[in-house]
Amino acid sequence: MGNPMEINIAVDDKASPKIHALLAALQDMTEVHEHVANSAYVLVQDHLKRVAPSRHATAQRLGATPTGHLEKAADDVGHRYDSREAVVEIVSEGIKRALGPLEIKPVNKRWLTIPADAESYGKSDGNNSGVAALRAEGWNIFRPRGRMFLAGTKGRGKAAKDTFKVLFWLKSQVTIPHDPGLLPEPDEIGAAVREGVKTWYLKKYGM
Predict the structure, then answer these.
(1) 41 in a domain, yes or no?
(2) Residue 141 is part of which domain span?
């Protein structure tokens, strides 16, 4: 797994002139960054949970149960802060497609295994782990000569032939299209920053 995707939250350019002057006079921005990071973190997490139900096209096409990938990605969102910065961290690699097309290549394997059926959907991380999972369920997995897919049967003899399915497409790489809607709009993040600064200000000065 790569490094978490980080959203660095700038404070100075989101504040009103009055608050900006107050922030500039602070010796330590830690408390401000705490409130800003928390506000932005809640925004990003809630946004991912809200858009998740609209991102099940592959599962619907295959007649499969959604994996809940985006819901898990939302649960894994984190944040950190110190005197220098406020940062929202997104662990899920797939969310990087919010910034542009995401190219995926196999790691320590020749092929990516792309689910082709409801039986295989959600059982592959792109590096053949789905094959092991299906074999554990009793599937006989094989690659027909000259074909760019893995097929499978269950059982033995004639009965097994009746269970034949194409389970995975084999790809040397895939590109997942750009999906900017996975993250909040810049204006929404700006509003979250302002809300964080306001929360800090009211807690600090009670006005």
Answers:
(1) yes
(2) 112-172
Task: Report long-range pairs for 144-149 (Cβ below 8 Å, ≥24 apart).
Answer: 149/116
In a domain, 105, yes or no: no
Does some domain include residue 106? no
CA distance 113 to 128: 6
Per-residue pLDDT of the chain (207 residues; tens, 9 = 90+): 566 788 887 775 555 666 666 776 677 889 999 999 999 999 999 999 999 999 999 999 999 999 999 999 999 999 999 999 999 999 999 999 999 999 999 888 889 999 999 999 998 655 557 888 899 999 999 999 999 999 999 988 888 888 999 999 999 999 999 999 999 999 999 999 989 988 988 888 776
pTM for this prediction: 0.85
Q: Are residues 82 and 141 in the same domain?
A: no
